[in-house]
Amino acid sequence: PMVLCGDLNVTSFSSVYARFQSMLSDAQRNFGKAHKNRPKSTWPSLFPIVRPDYVFVSPDCIVRKARVFSTGQARMASDHLPLIVDLSF
User: Which ranges of the chain would DSSP assign to H, the alpha helix?
Assistant: First the structure.
């Protein structure tokens, strides 16, 4: 199993994203498709409009849940909201 996660400083329209997506699966996007949810933005935390934070997984990883934690404390703790992905191997 392979998991690649982090702040890539790119949008899902970039060539960097396309390169990762060609080898791995965007956990938030694929979980959202299965549950009819759109991926959530994570930056800036006070009014998130961009999604620069990603979790990519290999095909042998099962995404159980993907969500963005957006409480008041989370908004104050960082300029990015936390992206939480539950996985099974």
Answer: 15-23, 27-34, 72-77
